[in-house]
């Protein structure tokens, strides 16, 4: 065993720089391999923070002449190599077991081992230490075997050269450091994968638990809502009977009190409806029956529902209808709830003796009808306008906040308007009053189809267009019954348009195979419904698919829908 003489750190640094030929090149290799660090002083110059440590090399070589040749060549290139010499593999393994080395140079033929088996045994003991194979044979096959066994490089004894040998050593260390780092990263990734698997399993368990809790909460809301509705209905009926004097005379004061009780019962009934609708909206189970209907019929229904409340509070409730009948495309029951909510809020916040007006008109864009609920109440501050459509939010009208309700009414109203391809906005000025404005689409199928596509959060899938015909249909009641049946058989993303009393156009969200599956189910339901219909069975209907130039995207189907609808409008007699 022998050691090379050591030089001072600064001189070592200069010697190494000399054979690398560049300070930057040497810094990158040497500091990365040895773990030294470079810092920047205030002037930005680089300097070494630590004295450069020697590179410790274990040389496994049974021939002392060859060992001295290796040491001599390295000493010519740089003095900062520290050697430990072992003549046998056993001795080398003992040294490695007690002292850490930066590199191993191993002869492939030593007394107690030969060939690549020497490399394998060294790598098994020191998997993170680079090994350079040393042999007297210049043979490509032997070189490949040595590399495959784990050697970082291969040196032929007769081709030793100082600077090349030093560079080979530093490169081998550098590659091994990179390999060690990669192995560590891979191990960390494996650990991370295991952690992710465990976390995924825990997340799945928690999600399953949350789904059960959510389903339970939905069930509780539904059950409580339904349980509340029955006694509420009984309370309202009996209070109305007493107030109207059907079981005995009541004076004016008693009648007013009973009217207030009815109003509060209506409030509670509205809360129950809000909770049910919220539950169904979040679960995606809210059924929609959208079709063409006269807007005046909806407004008259709203007036009937809120007139008593307005009279009780002594608020003037007026209706202003546009000239001529306006037809809209919507779910009449859901839109009635929306307008009722807006009118009820207006009556609630308007002071006694105030005015509320529900007026209808056509929008300037030619695509919508507008329903405006106007009041001359205290108005809503601008800061409140930004949050009134939020869940569980209640507007403060000029500093006055009503405590009745749970703050779901406007939030649900906005969602119901959106589901009907409309919108709600509000204008208000403190001290002047408030205008809630509901827009609803006119029965223009192409325009509504566009809004449906634009309202999707993701790209719209395939669609197809069908015609439903009942030849010879003459009975208006039968036509209405068939339309109600069809509306109850498809999903919220399907659109039905009535061309006349015996023909409908159906925009179906799905491909032809999906539509045929729907048709098969609908035919079975239709047959069952017909057997139980009190007024006799409906005539059979015929389904026809439109050819949209072989395409099933919304643009192609919309163009065909527009043309078909335009032709049907042209044939309508004046």
TrEMBL record:
- Recall the GO molecular function terms of this protein's record: phosphorelay sensor kinase activity
Instruction: Kindly give the InterPro entries that the UniProt entry links to this protein.
Output: CheY-like_superfamily, HATPase_C_sf, HATPase_dom, His_kinase_dom, HisK_dim/P_dom, HisK_dim/P_sf, Sig_transdc_His_kin-like_C, Sig_transdc_resp-reg_receiver
The residue stretches assigned to a coiled coil in this entry are 186-216
Q: Which residues form the Response regulatory domain?
A: 56-172
Q: Which residues carry this modification: 4-aspartylphosphate?
A: 107
Task: Note whether DNA-binding occurs among the keywords.
Answer: no
Q: Which reaction does it catalyse?
A: ATP + protein L-histidine = ADP + protein N-phospho-L-histidine
UniProt protein name: histidine kinase
Domain Histidine kinase: residue ranges? 223-444
Q: Name the UniProt key words of this record, in alphabetical order.
A: Coiled coil, Kinase, Phosphoprotein, Transferase
Q: EC no.?
A: 2.7.13.3
SMART domains documented for this protein: HATPase_c (SM00387), HisKA (SM00388), REC (SM00448)
Question: Which PROSITE patterns does the UniProt entry name for this protein?
Answer: HIS_KIN, RESPONSE_REGULATORY
Q: What parts of the sequence cross the membrane?
A: none
